[in-house]
Amino acid sequence: MTQATLLRQIIDYSSRADPYPLYAELRKTPVLQEGDDLFVVSTYWEIKSLLHDPRISSDARNLSPSAAGTLLQEEEEASALPPAFLRLDPPEHDRLRRMTMRPFGPPETPRRVHNMRGELARIVSGLIDGFGDRNRIDVVDDFSYPFPVTVICRLLGVPREDEALFHSWADTIAAGLDPDPGQDPGERRRVTQQARTELGKYLSGLIDERSGAPGDDMLSALVTQHGEDGQMTRMELLSTASLLLIAGHETTVNLITNGMLTLLRNPDVLERLRGDPGLALPIVEELLRFEPPVQLLPQRTTLADIDINGVTIPKGASVWLVLASGNRDPQRFPDPDRFDPDRKDNQHLGFGSGIHNCFGAPLARLEAQLALTELARRLNSPRLVEDPPPYRQNAVLRGPRHLNITFDGFHA
Amino acid sequence: MRLVVDLNRCQGYAQCAFLAPDVFAMHGEESLLYNPHADETHRDQVLRAATACPVQAILVDDMSDASAAAGDIAGREGPAGVR
Amino acid sequence: MSGDGALAWLRREGRIVIVGASLAGLRAAETLRKEGFTGSLTLIGDEPHEPYDRPPLSKQVLLGHATADRTALPRRLALDAHWRLGVAATGLDMAAKRVRLADGDEVEYDRLLIATGVHARPWPHKSEAELDGVFVLRTRDDAARLQRRLAASPRRVLVIGAGFTGSEIASACRERGLPVTVAERGAAPLVGALGGVIGRAAADLQREHGVDLRCGIMVTALEGDAPGRLRRAHLSDGTTIDTDVAVVSLGATRNTEWLAGSGLGAGPRGIACDAGCRAFDVRGIVTDDVFVAGDVARSPHALFGYQFLSLEHWGNAVAQAETAAHNMISSSSERRPHLWVPAFWSAQFGVNIKSVGVPSLGEEVIVAQGSLSDRRFTCVYGYQGRVIAAVAFDQTKWLEFYQRQIESAAPFPPDYPSVDRRPEGLRPVPAEFPDPSLPTHGPSVTVSGYSPTDQRITFVPAHA
């Protein structure tokens, strides 16, 4: 039972600030069985191979009845919305993702993200200017939360002033991903479902507006598109828009906050970045390896018995892929616990791999590069107020809840 | 600047086409077309793409256009900086 | 001098000559330097250009997105090499360890790497091949010439041969809005490389994009006007096509003529070498100072029954060059086998085609994921009950999995369910490769001969 304890320990809030020693323990058993139906995969090559394995499904309907009762598996069944492409398999996944990509990126809209650079820079500058004459801020509340939220709102065409509304829905829904929410499952299901319903109603109203008067935002494009894949149904639109809004809320904030925390713990790297903004590129890739905002993928299942690393994962089992552990696998990354922006061949798992690789990755990269470069450049002698900072409850979407820092003023 | 993409490695994640649209383009869903001799003015874009490539398939060199000119390769070549 | 001493001397001040200054030659040279070779390094190339990349020539360059003279390969490190470009090697004296050059010069070596690649098979009728408007596409000069002609808006382009290069040329022409006829001797495009099942999907793809595709047909003659310009092509069914551009895409011939009489085991099928890239001589005895890499090599592959594979693949050139270079300056115990799993790609008509393994060995094929009619699918090939290859159309993210299936000799047909398995994927069907004795246009993998210990190896004389 020591191994079962290990998984519980990882989920437990007390290990949130530093789960990495526990991941190292976990990797001693690359494919760890927990109970009858849950298998936890923690080594790089095994995770990578399962991410490209067509016998692995992201669709919860393929879980065996007993596995469906395990940790994390109840929230979407309770929801009124059909699963978004994140939780579908090909061909439905491919079709919906392709349709969502059409107004977002190549081949149809190759310059959308690139052309947002100026706007991203203005948002960042505005937020830093807003620090005013304070010499102490909370990086989360004052910067790394409002920045990506403003961006996703503009991108989707959601009024920024409604943010307070869907902020709480997004947080509630994201908390549904947490294996140990500290509340009873029935209550959590009810709260999550209610948040989903509210968010669905809100987005439904927006969709009605956009279909009458489309703008140049993504929601308008999704509502009005007629491509080779046809149109999205109303339900597909709602689940896709919810997914984008929640993902835009709950992930990049952690990437930026984890980034600032890591830079403050590695002042030599912070100093280098100040002198060489180009270093932001490898810094962000190394961050995605070192402190990935999505620590594990808890929503895969097997369509067949799969033999891997001496273990047979039976058909219908629930499979967790611990990306953050794979990223620290010494078999793949030399000296894995060192934050090293000069690392070569950094094929991290921070954005996953295979067909479900992070949809918003290019935008998250740009946001994080810009945010960290500007914080490094403009803040004079930034220092952590406390280390470790307080963390959010969530073990999957892991990051600090607050990151209080002090500094001696900032440059224009 | 010269570049080459190992298209055996490439899996069509399209990060390069997002981040460096003046040099890389998706042709259909998965095929990548790129300019093997990118303009110097696109250097930042190319580096952004090469760093972000999830399968690290983009090889870039820093040989300046002048030293790459055909004239000097009959003899012994100068050093080529590589990132 | 002891063996170790000789090797140390070689690495310090030996002379290494690489014949062939393209992808394989360049990557070998870089590997030699990276692994600490400090002696003299000479690269000999018949083209006057420094190493450049060929895949863009039939895609970006023909589309006008890149120019042919700006395809030079990036360098991974400074080579400090002596370049002899624009001078072909014309002979090899293995006893004296000398390479003869077209300008009469001779270059001595302690280790030789042959990476002379292939050239486009020309149109067989010389006078017709010389007509203005008849092209091949292999070199960057070929590509520049063809691109200029396409830019001048010919009234029709005839592509002779629907292998990968021919299909990519047809695709680029259609994208430029040019009328295109493709004449293919086999039953479908790509049939030699991928078989009839995928060939039919490729044929549909071409027709959907407006190609006038004619299969099971041969071009019998190219006809010019008085000033020597191409005007018309005659086909084996008695029809003619008015055209002012014909691109001959009939595959490639290995550049081994210069080795005739050298005593090296070189012929039209390439130069036989062992898995460590050491060339065989005509007696079947392996040499220890002549190495081979890239398109010109054929070497036994453990995964495929030790059959000799000749692979005209970009990735093979890179991997084999690195292995050959490593082995050239290593002791026998440190040498590595060239165990690269064959892989290639093609981009045509907006579809990304990728392959792993050796499809042409396949007896049966199954549509493991997706659907042929959607043009998004992954096909798996079986040979004697095991997975031997996989080919994807716009589904490249799954290929890693099938590569592991090939490497582990997984059973065929696949006995497990997978995502996106459709009714058409429930049963394998014959792969429908043409009879290998009937030449088709450019299969990219040819299998010939058996293991080095097999005495049935015969070498066809050059110019056969």
Q: What's the structural domain tally of chain C?
A: 3
Most residues in contact, chain pair and counts: B-C, 37 and 41 residues
Strand content of chain B: 15-25%
Instruction: Report the major sheet of chain C.
Output: 6 strands, mixed
The chain-level structural class of chain B is alpha+beta
Please state the average pLDDT score of chain C.
Answer: 92
**Approximately how much helix is present in the residues of chain B?**
10-25%
Q: Which CATH architecture of the largest domain in chain C is right?
A: 3-Layer(bba) Sandwich
Total strands of chain B: the figure is 4
* Text of the CATH class of chain B: Alpha Beta
Number of helices of chain C: 9
Helix content of chain C: 10-25%
CATH topology of the largest domain in chain C: FAD/NAD(P)-binding domain
Count of β-strands of chain C: 30
As residue ranges, the low-confidence spans of chain B are 64-83
Return the domain count of chain B. 1
Can you tell me about this structure?
- The complex is a heterotrimer of chains A (about 400), B (about 80) and C (about 475).
- Chain A has helices at about 1-10, 20-25, 45-50, 90-100, 110-115, 115-130, 140-145, 145-155, 165-175, 185-210, 220-225, 235-250, 250-265, 265-275, 280-290, 325, 360-380, and strands spanning about 30-35, 40, 55, 135-140, 295-300, 305-310, 310-315, 320, 385, 405.
- With about 400 residues, chain A is of the alpha+beta class.
- Chain A has a single domain (about 1-405), classed as Cytochrome P450 (Cytochrome p450).
- In chain A, helix 1 (about 1-10) packs antiparallel against helix 2 (about 20-25), helix 13 (about 250-265) packs across helix 15 (about 280-290) and helix 13 (about 250-265) runs parallel beside helix 17.
- Chain A is globular, with a radius of gyration of 21 Å.
- Mean pLDDT of chain A is about 90; it is low at about 75-80.
- Chain B has about 80 residues and is an alpha+beta fold.
- Chain B has a single domain (about 1-65), classed as Alpha-Beta Plaits (2-Layer Sandwich), CATH 3.30.70.
- Chain B has 3 helices and 4 strands, in the order E-H-E-E-H-E-H.
- In chain B, strands 1-4 form a two-stranded antiparallel ribbon.
- The longest helix of chain B has 10 residues, at about 45-50.
- The N and C termini of chain B lie close together (about 10 Å).
- The model of chain B is unreliable at about 65-83 (pLDDT under 50).
- Chain C has 9 helices and 30 strands.
- The relative contact order of chain C is 0.13.
- Chain C is globular and about 65 Å long.
- Residues about 440-464 of chain C have low confidence and may be disordered.
- Chain C has helices at about 5-15, 25-35, 60-65, 125-130, 140-150, 165-175, 190-210, 315-330, 400-405; strands at about 15-20, 40-45, 80-85, 90-95, 100, 105-110, 110-115, 120, 135, 155-160, 180-185, 210-215, 220-225, 230-235, 240, 245-250, 250-255, 265, 270, 280, 285-290, 295-300, 305-310, 345-350, 350-355, 365-370, 375-385, 385-395, 430, 445-450.
- Chain C is α/β, with parallel strands linked by helices and about 475 residues long.
- Classes of the chains: A alpha+beta (about 400), B alpha+beta (about 80), C alpha/beta (about 475).
- The interface between A and C is medium-sized, with 17 and 16 residues.
